[in-house]
Fold EF-hand domain-containing protein.
Amino acid sequence: MASDDAIAAMARTILAEKRARKAAEDDALRLYNRVRQLQKEEDRAQKRIIETKKKAKEIIKARERNEQKLIEKEQRHREQQEQVEEQKLDNLRAKEEALRHRIEQENKIYQEKLDVVQKTKEERADIERLLAESRLLARKEALEQKDFIRKQQEDARRKIETLKLQKLTAAQEEYERRLKEEIDAKLAKEQEIERLAQMELELIERLKSKQAEQRKAYQQLEAVLSLGNVSTTKGLTGNGKPASPKVTVVGATGGVSPERPPSQMSQASASYTAEEAAPDGEPTEEDVARAFAMYDTDGIGEISTLSLDGLLRDLGVPLSPSQLSQAIAQLDTSQTGRITFGEFLLWWKG
């Protein structure tokens, strides 16, 4: 037991020594590290000291250089100031010289201007004298020219008055001649109008008598026709439709006229035209009057412009549409649509 305790005590002692040694080793290592760190710090501090001294030397050298430059700059500035002062003095002397020269020039120019003004005054006096003389001469010439122009104007006025009088006399004679011609023409035209009016009245009376005779002849013809034999044939045509009745007219001489429908009987009785009644050659005034009366259904001595084409065809003078339009325009000048016998007869003779 005692040996075991001794062994245990020895083991504890050894363990304690080991722990103490371990702690000493750790302390030694920490001290070593701190020494190394301090040495490094010392080396860095030494380097900084060296660098600081080096920078201090450089700064001192730079300061010396700057001081030298400043001294040189001040020297240059003093030299420039001296040059500026000298330049100012030179400029001042130049200004004074320029001012003196300008004053001399101004005095010279002023004197020249005075001379020019004096010379101009003298020239102006000469010019005014010449102008006065020229005005007097021009006034004299103007008066002479005015007298000459007045004489010419008076001569021209007399000539114009003479020409006006001659023209007025000639115009008066021409006016009287033309007035006489117009009066003579008017009288002749009035006489012709009276003659034509009288002729128109005579023709109207003759037309009225002819129309009365014509109506009487028509009445006699109708009386003869009413006494004739009238035969009416009724029947059917070949196609089965009722045929138009045909009338056979027996004339007063006993002859038989061609068969005509009843609707053409009155037309046959009134188909007496001036062309059938007129003898060979140009129609006479009586033929024209009879033909005109055929279209004057109212018996008033007028016909419609629409009847002019048929009247002219009956008289043997057919016209084209353009010629017919021209004839109507010449006859119906008042555009009433009516044509009197007098107008037609004058146009026919013309």
Notes: Residues 228-280 have pLDDT under 50 and may be disordered. The longest strand covers residues 302-304. The longest helix spans residues 2-227.
